């Protein structure tokens, strides 16, 4: 029997690509070129499985291509707001993702950004590189404490809880969260976590607000001018979730006018294009969507896609089916 034809949209870690070559009639993207909607439509017509990732857009116009051969989108990534899930369902396309394996690395990056923003890490690095540091003095680059401060988490899924563990057990931070669902009692007890009834309450009590909700229509610009105005002027906003959860223009204004102290961002509206307004601000730390970017995590993400494809082609339910 011939092997299923599999299309991989971007370069994956080598060990996973080697397994793909063994198991499937696979087309890789060895030069890691970003592909267009036309490429994706063509792939859906000529391959049994297409494996996109976070930076590939699969709206209805792509998914509804006629004469489809593809039966499964094996997404490399946990977030899937770049795929029109309803269109996929209507077209009978199975969609899978890669939950669980990027929890700790993404929480680590959220904590990194929190520390960078609090302690003005990126700003200090720029100062030293520009040879503008004139030496230690008692009032130079004073910043905010992290240890013992209040951390407010918006969304309280796996990544938020992992960050809360690091923050609470490592930095003695007081944990608040806002989520549609109350956390399990053992989690609340372990973290001494307080659930806020409203988002406003969370914005008001937190010294650091970290976003962990999914992207998409429901959370688009959840953090807008009004929400930012509810934060303490000494507070920092951390975003490792999705760029469009934050209204960039409103955040730039709040940072410029020092209505909040700082922000740490790993994700952006319309990334990789970044609003120019961020670039000239000292009080924002910017990372290029590095949340899951450790060798072990990216390899584990690839392995997860392999598990999902293997189950699907064996006629079983894929473990991480989203649609
Ligand atoms: C995901 O998997 O959705 C992450 O954003 C990748 O880091």
What does this structure look like?
With 323 residues, this protein is α/β, with parallel strands linked by helices. It has helices spanning 14-23, 37-46, 60-63, 85-90, 103-119, 121-129, 158-171, 185-191, 199-205, 225-229, 248-256, 276-279, 295-313, and strands at 5-8, 25-27, 49-51, 72-74, 94-96, 150-154, 174-178, 194-195, 208-211, 236-239, 262-265, 284-286. It is 37% helix and 13% strand. The longest helix is centred in the last third of the chain and has 19 residues, at 295-313. It has 13 helices and 12 strands. Bound molecules: (2R)-2,3-dihydroxypropanoic acid. (2R)-2,3-dihydroxypropanoic acid (DGY) binds next to loops.
Give short descriptive properties of this protein.
five-stranded parallel β-sheet, globular, binds (2R)-2,3-dihydroxypropanoic acid, 323 residues, alpha/beta, Rossmann fold, seven-stranded parallel β-sheet
Question: Would you spell out the secondary-structure blueprint of this structure?
Answer:
Layout: E1 5-8, H1 14-23, E2 25-27, H2 37-46, E3 49-51, H3 60-63, E4 72-74, H4 85-90, E5 94-96, H5 103-119, H6 121-129, E6 150-154, H7 158-171, E7 174-178, H8 185-191, E8 194-195, H9 199-205, E9 208-211, H10 225-229, E10 236-239, H11 248-256, E11 262-265, H12 276-279, E12 284-286, H13 295-313
Parallel strand pairs: 1-2, 1-3, 3-4, 4-5, 6-7, 6-9, 7-8, 9-10, 10-11, 11-12
